[in-house]
Amino acid sequence: MSEIKTHYRTCNICEAMCGLEIRHQDGNILSIKGDADDPFSRGHICPKAVALQDFYNDKDRLKTPIRRTTDGWQAISWDEAFAEIANRFRGIQDAHGKDAVGVYLGNPNAHNFGNAIMLPRFFKALGTNNRYSSASADQLPHHVASNYMLGAGMLIPIPDIDHTDFMLIIGANPIVSNGSLMTAPGVGKRLKAIQQRGGKVVVVDPRRTETARKADQHLFIRPETDALMLLAMVHTLIDEGLVDLGHLAPLIEGYERLGDAVGPYSPERVADACGIAADTLRGLAREMAAANSAVCYSRMGASTQSFGGLCQWLTNVLNILTGNFDSRGGAMFTQPAFDLVRNKKGKPSSYGRYESRVRKLPFFNGEFPVATLADEILTPGDGQIRAMITIAGNPVLSSPDGGSLEKAFESLDFMVSVDIYLNETTRYADIILPATTGLEVSHFDVFFNSFAVRNTAKFSEPLFAKSEDQKHDWEILKELALHLTGLEDDGVTPEMMLDGGLRHGAYADQGMSLEKLKANPHGLDLGPLQPCLEKRLQTEDGRIHIAPPLFVEDLNRLDAFALTETDQGTEYPFSMISRRLPRSHNTWTQNSHRLIKGKNPCTLKINSADAQRLGLEDGQTARVASPTGSIQLPVEIDDDMFEGVVSIPQGWGHNRPQTGMSIAESQPGESINDVTDRQRIDALTGNAAFNGTRVSIQAA
Ligand code: SF4
After folding, report:
1. Which residue ranges make up each domain of the chain?
2. pTM above the 0.70 mark?
3. CATH 3.40.630.30: does it fit domain 567-699?
4. Type and span of the H or E element at 388
5. Lowest-pLDDT range of 250-259, 330-339, 587-596
6. Cα 187 to ligand 1 centroid, rounded to whole Å
7. CATH (one of 1.10.10.10, 3.40.50.620, 3.40.228.10, 3.90.1150.10) for 140-337+536-557
8. Which one, of 466, 470, 371, 434, lies nearest residue 132 by Cα?
9. Is the distance from the beta carbon of residue 506 to the nearest atom of ligand 1 less than 6 Å?
């Protein structure tokens, strides 16, 4: 036996970027613990990190390309796979145009260093505008709000959680998610620290979440009325003369337009719709204004709903008006070593540059909303998608109305998936190209360093070498690009591109380079967040647009929905929201036995009063139905649910046949996206509106 060695790396499963200390010997993992010397995570990890070894060792994991045949899946060589894919894609594009091939990117791409760097080259080679990703089922409203207010979709304000005195959390459960668009490992401790220094944490959510239970105050709110609540708070600040723009005052454009827009939204007018008393709404606004520092943070529940764009705009407005934007303890801007905010001053936004063919939804940041992907495949006509490539994604389970995507994928002329599993989506592919996984790849967090609550930088070397017949994701993308274009390999690697970005980035004067990061395997601390907005703003006039007309006009849609009597509740009387679980992340985490063992967590949470009215008992199977479809799952009576609201976890539903995920497939659990509706979107941004889906409930 050789000696026991220790390897340090960043966990790339979720956004938190926890540092890991992995002891190993002869290719076997002995332990995975938090790296106490990581300057960012300081020893924090969650149970999912330990499962990295399960994905590495998983016998279900694909390691060589496979092709679907009438006799089942058969192994093929990489050369054969690349040649066939390029040939089929080129043939389809020659006959039907470039846009006849579509691309879908799953969320793991954002956690994959090689892909994050190499995808633009692949996109250029493929030349299609028909690109889709999980971003439009998640955080698109944040990007659109930043695009219009600050001039750059990637310039997203992050709560300075470690220095704030008052934190208002809307529709987020960071104790379970470990932060999202707030990369913050160990959120629980950070929230507790707010309380220990005399501050206050308030959570607003239709469910008393794990985070809400630790907060000083929890307020139930009716789903999809968060924008009304934020409007009432902004109204109060202006109405009561509590506005303090601080150092940003000279940069604010549109203040009068904002005042006119929020004028009608007094707390008294919106209180009933929100389910929160007017006095409480006024009180919250006053508390935020009075705090030494304060921050409002709104996330999934406020983004993946019909008014996600309005919510993110108004969250920013609230932080600006209370003097808590780009200010210590407020909403600040990370200054990453590898900066994704390019100098765009004067360049037009891509928002709405094209409209999707069938539903006329807006193009933004190089893609169309995933809620219309099935329409673009299933609707005949010029521009119809006839072939697809999915990269590290399982949209059948993660996108609204997943069943429609199954029909769509089945109808394609040709489909390719880059994935380590034969899953509910990739089973429709003609060819699957498996890449290396977590412990075999180098890592630098290209995206989440931009959303972190502290400036740090870290590079992780691979722990295990890949075998000769395996390829990294970026190698697959590069090979595909070369086969599609016929160009010669220029030898450029993601590490070279990263090094160039680091050497010319914000820490160039400190000698930042890839070599320097490699010499510091625990990572480098680059200090707390600092006010930096004035120099990073990308609007053409160099000002902060506090009331972009596009957002102000969208208030008409909110009024029509939330402040007008409707009969939407009669046939489908419940409002459904999703929830995240501590031991699952993407659909593949359910193929780790250690992450799914124990009681089935895929339950229908419902308030006891609602359950009693319906005659439902704990553990009984209920049928949840919407105009899209129906599912059956066990009832969990839980008075942490707001009356009239039910909750189902996201990312489940491995009960479909013919996948290769033997552990996941043996689990109970239904897909919430067999009930969600792909027609429900935030019309402003195109983001999918999962939360607030109207459903009926009855005993099965
Ligand atoms: S919180 Fe996220 S990054 Fe940290 S250990 Fe868990 S899965 Fe990994």
Report:
1. 5-50, 66-138+345-527, 140-337+536-557, 567-699
2. yes
3. no
4. strand 387-391
5. 587-596
6. 11
7. 3.40.228.10
8. 371
9. no
